[in-house]
Design a protein that fits this description.
mainly alpha, 3-stranded antiparallel β-sheet, 6 strands, 6% strand, binds carboxymethyl coenzyme *A
């Protein structure tokens, strides 16, 4: 066997073929098996993509065993400590950290795109007052394509860039509007004089009858720091379910707004972005520390669908580096919100302590993930529970558009079209209805 190849032998026929073994700058070597079917007449079967790399990417690197997360090579803890969310978004989209001038221009352009077309306001009226904000996000983000016909040539790099900028700029405005529709408050326009997270909090909570900035308690430094941090930690996570959805949808040439809308739909699930909302529901259901053993037993019971939300991760099998960073902030935010004695937080800590000592969780390497803590912080910042996954959308938009830009700039990208292992009926003939039993 040649070096840097793998051999696959079909024992049923005795045929053996060699395939290249690709090596990235970091990480697991990857067998390139695109010609497997042509050479050996077989497919690979890997539901859940346990051992399948779906693309090449230079954006984010994860080492799940070591708990490493790098954006464009920079460790997540360094970015979390020193950066703002928009600086990280620039990094993800463009590949390098911006100079001061570049960042200034980027922020200015994002600000300029943050307004919504007035006609979009009417879309919200079509939603019932109790619609889940994620349902509004899927619908309204998808409908953005109806407003930008003249800049939807995906072969034009400038059209792609401006579409990505629009998405990053407008999604917080749509997110805040979704919340305000649900509570019956008038929509608030974005403000150019506020920083990205401040602006979002202002669009969420300011009331026309109240001089918001003077009151100022939603836009204090601890809140802005916490939001920036959460958005940075959630900004990208390589080929997760929603990013893979965005890439698969994009591979058909669909417009970017439709693709990001598909990603929002995928993020909504409780196994993915919906977990932060599910953690709070779970804590409410558990109710008190004396019930923890009962719920841990449920989580371990194979016949019970209950899972400990905010625990476990497909890639991290040691610790989630995002969880380590966020755990510290949790204390700071709760202290500021005078919630450090909040029963819900105390319950969360007790649950965490109990699960971390349990043999089942140790053996299966199930640790608290980022979303075990993010919901607790959002609650302390007065973000309503059904907006938690929407907050994740705002952050992950930076990652989605970066992956979309990367993929669309790759001239050889092909439509994503997995195959299957068919387990249905073999060929059979149509039977007239009067002969069927
Ligand atoms: N509670 C109880 N048991 C669990 C849990 C859990 N949270 N997570 C995994 N397991 C068990 C699972 O039953 C399985 O047991 P067995 O080997 O006996 O069949 C084993 O651990 C491996 O789990 P898996 O489902 O095969 O692992 P996966 O990689 O397919 O799923 C996961 C990863 C995140 C979907 C899963 O751990 C989970 O459902 N966690 C709760 C939801 C959650 O917190 N999701 C947020 C993830 S972080 C944010 C993001 O990136 O979206």
């Amino acid at each position: 066997m040649k070096k840097d190849t793998v051999s696959i032998i079909d024992n049923s026929t005795g045929r053996e073929e060699e395939f290249p073994l690709l090596k990235g700058t970091l990480g697991t070597p990857t067998a390139e098996i695109g010609t497997l079917n042509k050479k050996l007449g077989i497919f690979t079967f890997d539901p859940g993509f346990m051992a399948t790399a779906s693309c090449k990417s230079a954006i984010t690197y994860i080492d799940g065993d070591q708990g490493v997360l790098l954006y464009r090579g920079y460790p997540i803890d360094q970015l979390a400590k020193n950066s703002s969310f928009l600086e990280v978004a620039y990094l993800l989209m463009n590949g390098d950290l911006p100079t001061e001038t570049e960042l200034y221009a980027f922020v200015k352009e994002i600000n300029q795109h943050s307004m919504l077309h007035e006609a979009l306001r009417g879309f919200f009226d079509g939603f019932h007052y109790d619609a889940h904000p994620m349902a509004m996000m899927v619908g309204v983000v998808g409908s953005l394509s109806a407003f930008y016909h003249s800049e939807l040539d995906m072969n034009d790099p400038e059209h792609r860039r401006i579409s990505a900028m629009r998405m990053l700029a407008k999604i917080p405005t749509i997110a805040a509007a979704s919340y305000r529709h649900s509570v019956g408050w008038p929509f608030v326009y974005p403000r150019l004089d506020l920083e990205y997270c401040e602006n979002f909090m202002n669009m969420m909570f300011s009331l026309p009858a109240q001089k918001f900035i003077d009151e100022g308690h939603y836009i204090d430094p601890v809140t802005v720091k916490a939001l920036n941090l959460l958005f940075i930690l959630h900004a990208d996570h390589e080929q997760n379910a929603s990013t893979s959805t965005v890439r698969l949808a994009s591979s058909t040439g669909a417009n970017p707004y439709a693709c990001i809308s598909a990603g929002i739909g995928a993020l909504w699930g409780p196994a993915h972005g919906g977990a932060n909302e599910a953690v709070l529901s779970m804590l409410a259901e558990i109710g008190s520390a004396d019930k923890i053993p009962e719920y841990i037993a449920k989580a371990k019971d194979k016949n019970d669908p209950f899972r400990l939300m905010g625990f476990g991760h497909r890639v991290y099998k040691n610790f989630d580096p995002r969880a380590t960073i966020i755990r510290e902030t949790c204390h700071e935010v709760l202290e500021k919100a005078s919630m450090d004695n909040d029963p819900l937080f105390e319950l969360a800590l007790a649950l965490e302590e109990y699960a971390l000592k349990d043999e089942y969780f140790i053996e299966k390497k199930l640790y608290p993930n980022v979303d075990f803590y993010s919901g607790i912080i959002y609650k302390a910042l007065n973000i309503p529970v059904d907006m938690f996954t929407v907050m994740f959308v705002i952050a992950r938009t930076a990652g989605w558009v970066s992956h979309w830009l990367e993929m669309m700039a790759e001239p050889s990208h092909r439509i994503g079209r997995p195959r299957q292992l068919y387990t249905g009926q073999p060929r059979r003939d149509y039977m007239d209805i009067d002969k069927r039993k």
